[in-house]
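Hey, I'm writing a tutorial for new members on how sequence and structure tokens pair up, and I'd like a real worked example in the thread rather than a made-up one. If someone can provide the structure for the chain below, I'll link this post from the tutorial.
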Amino acid sequence: MEELGLQVANVAGRDLIVGPDAMTRMQQELDLQFVSANILVDGKPLLKPYIILSKRLGDREVRIGITGVTMKSRSAVEAWPDANLEFQDASEAAREVLEVLRTQTDVRILLAHLTTAALEELHAEMPFGYDLLVSSTGELRETTPIGETPVVLSPGSRGKHLAWLNLRFERPGSVHVTGGEVLRLDQKIEDDAEMAARVAQMKEQLAARPAAGEGRVTTSEAPLPTADGPSP
């Protein structure tokens, strides 16, 4: 993530399945900022609710506010047994933080891991609360909107697409999309040789690890759990 130049990442509920220790290590080892406006642990924010970046454009500084929200994950709650992990209402949390950012920033970006229905409801309730909403729940919108914000960018899931936008800032309250694209990462785009070699090495290391549960005997006849609940 660091080599890609990633600066800010929204934490989805499913990301927390790794547990508190792994989450703490990632925060300490990665040179990027995790944000979430609606994840609490023991009644306190687990992460910063937002971050403000400053970018020089011509003769002025443009302040960019970024926040994130996620849907609840039952598996994440189960992975934090010694802590009271809570997910506040995502729409309400987004409204509150975007209102705080409205007076402090020139451009506001909302990173949202929510269902399509929740995203549409959020957009209807506060169409001008953000300039750019980036969705990460799998819906693919293969065209990028051109014109005045607010806009929604939804590049699908599993790293199969890459999306980019050009934003032109004219004055507070006036931000336009002047260009963009949603690229399908298929055979037409060649792999970076160095990165492909690193991925292959990581796959070999993972393949060499013992399978989950290897060397142990279990007598449970209960159905195996899925990502967010028991199998039918």
